[in-house]
Predict the structure.
Amino acid sequence: MAGPGGKRDGDDDDAALFRAAVGPVRALPAAPAPPGRPRPRPRARMAERDEAQAREDFRLGRGEGFSIERGDVLSHRRDQVPPRTLKRLSQGLYATQDELDLHHVDAGTAETLLRRFLAEARDAGFGCVRVVHGKGLNSSDSLPVLKNVVDRILRQRSDVLAFHSAPPAQGGTGAVLVLLARR
């Protein structure tokens, strides 16, 4: 039956029996908060900027690794090319079949133009081409930027067998003769 306040008399007895059976209780310590989202790893922004600058310097032919001076001769040959062939190239004894003039072009554009020119020359079946890069007299720093860019790109390309600065009558140290591999 319901007593005063709407409770049944048996409910009080049940609660008293439960408390007597359980005995004294103590409060549990508060549970630790669940772990939050992990914090992002810190970024080395200065190192990223330095890496980007180093890549750009390499792409444009600037920095410590690029020390070709204005009067320096560009010369390189693959192992399969005999030294005699490089000597003949240096003397201008191969007829050039096409020419690219990079005067007054910035380094980024020069790289694009040179890569396209070499691909088109090889596709056309040309064996020898001339690239005029200038002597770097108008470069802002002491190093000829375009000359360094041309040297770097020619050394990287597998279709370039050999290259050498042109003889004085064909541009001297302001131009380079390039032997291309046949398709």
